[in-house]
Amino acid sequence: MRLRAFPILVDGHWRPAGAAETFRAVNPATGEFLPGEYPISPWTDIAEALAAGARAASALAAIGPEPVARFLELFPKLLEGRKEELVATAHLETALPSEPRLGSVELPRLLDQLRQAAAACRDRSWCRATIDSKLNIRSMLGPLGGPVVIMGPNNFPFAYNALGGGDFASALAAGNPILAKSHPGHPSTTRIMAEAALEALDAAGLPSASVQLLYHFAPEDGLRLVSHPSVAAAAFTGSRLSGMALKEAADRAGKPIYLEMSSANPVFILPGAPAERPEEIAGELSQSCMLAGGQMCTKPGLVVILDDPAGRAFVNRVKSAFEGSEPVILLSPKVLEGLREASARLARDGAERIAGRREPSGPGFRFSPTLFTLSGTGFLRDPAAFQVESFGTFSLIVLAKDMAEMKEIASCLEGHLTGSVYSHSDGRDDREYDAIEPILRTKVGRLLNDKMPTGVAVSPAMNHGGPYPATGHPGFTAVGFPAAMFRFAALRCYDHVRADRLPPELKDVNPTGTMWRFVDGEWTQRSL
Amino acid sequence: MRLRAFPILVDGHWRPAGAAETFRAVNPATGEFLPGEYPISPWTDIAEALAAGARAASALAAIGPEPVARFLELFPKLLEGRKEELVATAHLETALPSEPRLGSVELPRLLDQLRQAAAACRDRSWCRATIDSKLNIRSMLGPLGGPVVIMGPNNFPFAYNALGGGDFASALAAGNPILAKSHPGHPSTTRIMAEAALEALDAAGLPSASVQLLYHFAPEDGLRLVSHPSVAAAAFTGSRLSGMALKEAADRAGKPIYLEMSSANPVFILPGAPAERPEEIAGELSQSCMLAGGQMCTKPGLVVILDDPAGRAFVNRVKSAFEGSEPVILLSPKVLEGLREASARLARDGAERIAGRREPSGPGFRFSPTLFTLSGTGFLRDPAAFQVESFGTFSLIVLAKDMAEMKEIASCLEGHLTGSVYSHSDGRDDREYDAIEPILRTKVGRLLNDKMPTGVAVSPAMNHGGPYPATGHPGFTAVGFPAAMFRFAALRCYDHVRADRLPPELKDVNPTGTMWRFVDGEWTQRSL
Known about the structure:
Shape of chain A: globular
Oligomer: homodimer
Strand content of chain A: 15-25%
């Protein structure tokens, strides 16, 4: 068994894992195992990667950002060259549509992210070089001094892949070596990405352990890893349960960990909106819920609308859209099981299932788009229970009896990634907006108007983050350059350090001529 | 007892604590209790302050930064007017010299910090407004949406006071209401500051619970407080033991907490430095250790030098300086006990006490400046034990047998606030510097050349922070505007939000005309 398993990538080489155990990915469309045996690494593999990663951290610090930028430019080129293979493999492993999703949406997004990371790395403005010329104190953000562990989710085999996705790109662009753990749902996709990464790494002249890959390990080894003295930080995207366990382990050891755990992405529909454009909004909501089988961290899982004629008509439209939709194929039996549990829980707690009663037939992990409704009073009986994320084509519409109740529902929200407010275009809902917005604002990372939350643009102004328990810290975003890089950086001050010993970013002469620096209270591209 | 105790400041009013128990501060110079009975608040006091603080958070969000800036300007004026009373009281409670320390160093620093915070608040550039005009996504840092708990240390009754010090100023300037807990060592100083704050608060038109004060509570109530759902975040400066307990409680609840816990502030003296200017450096080191009785978070507590003739001569100079110094009066019996324990521990672990053997006579908490030496081999036998902070006039000089051992010592450091390197001015130590610096750089927040770490300038480029366990997160500083404010801010993204609903900082028109914003990849003061 062990000899037939794919090798792991440690310290610049593909070598057999020290594994007695292996796993195989499953085709969600058929429920059958895919070929390709992958190793479950024992701690010895992890320890070796950690030691190599620590050496790579020092080596990366010595060579500066240029080789990293070259890698981040070359890597997407190589991925692009293997597009066909990547899309076919990811489709087999996730059942996500090859087109447009994988080939024309997610892969381009992945490439764009890597290129934006390369640009941020080369530009150097991200490090917020700050110079106090009078006191000769200078500071900047710099790498953390050890490998960063990245654990990616199941739902974006390209864009959030532990090897190559957003966390990878931002941690590496900030100068940290990467120790990636593949999601076990798509090991072959990850392997192809790692092959391209190794080729780019050699060509760019990066230290050999700048990018390493393990496919799987025991949960307890994951806890040990994120709290290990040699680890600089970790990033995890996935379930709240796993995230909380990792957070506890990392917190105890004083290790930064960035988590994207769960979000119901509440949508508030103010009275004028369904009166003005019911069809449009119902369409947007249904489409947003269906996207990728609802397996998006920003899927609108909680909708709040008034229990008036326009509100009830709106609910009926959404119900029809859900009922008219084909069953979706989910990523894994775990996702399917989660949705079945959520359905049972909501029904037990008094919500009414108005779409998705039928269990679909066919092989694999199929699920009928499911919609629940609930009264505001019902919601307020146990607000925590009704804002749990249900990953998949699944949403809950809460019918509030009046604006006061809607406001109270907003007050009972915990932290979420996003919050949307729909209102009449002529401003007639402005008073209601002004009542809801200040409450919602402190509960979500991204506030939207007249727009569903799915579709997270890779923009410097994006916040893909939010208050706990959506993430572990309200000040950071996982998407957008340079902001996503701030997570993987330490503040480094140089006090009275001799001029020739300063890093290039803090010397009097601007090292690129265009880098932005905060000099004596002004942002400038000039040299001192 | 209860009726005679000073009242607490809750929701804009001085009112009796719900306390059965009280405490009194001690004069460290005499060891005797000072007059003035202060309450130990039960949970009901805390709960009331929390509820009022939550209301104040909403009210502050509604009125914007101008009233906060007015408060931060008026408050130092009022404090200045009460200078005599403040200095006399702080001197009684801490035994720190009235002049120059309290009256001419620390109080001016406090006032300067508050004024810098006011300027940052009014300027608004701190919020890093970021605008992507093409996608109409905009983001900024904003307040956290609840009260911030501040717990200050014993060693800076003005500049780091929970009510008025650096954490207070930065959290409030970022728009958060403050729930301060006085250090029990200086309640009367804190009370005077709170009286001035309340006067400034009323005059500036701030919500009544924007600044609240409790004097003391049980440690378990502190843990409950930092993990309470209504709390937005906490800041703590103090011992590692207390800091770790608070961190664990806050982490479990997903609440951000900023800790400044302990630091040995290693100083590396490269071979050429003691050869070139032995007297100067020995003087700087001794003075830095004596400052405020060594009760500085940046006191150099660990010095590493070569065991060669120049190194040994240097040690003798420092020994003489320590021996020639008067005993100091420490802040509390706890500090004195900590130093006695540290002395016993170091002696037991094989270090040699070369100054400070005499127990000083006289009342109060007196301690003779104490210096230990140890071989590099001795240090490397248990590196963790020899870099524990010893708060007070106390330092350890490690004599390394060669540069390889010095480098190994650097490698064994954990996170500290600062690290200094002294070298010959003609560059002859540059090779040694290049060997030590990359190692030291990842272990400390602030790196110094030819300078002792005491004296933390309030500069935008300062980092008073560092890797764990010096603090809880390597990316933040507790000193310097605007950077210290970033700790108390949430990232708030506005996606497709209607123009008239945007906060002023994100509208097309620059709200001040001079605020710096990051617009389409450029830092600019222009409007869109």
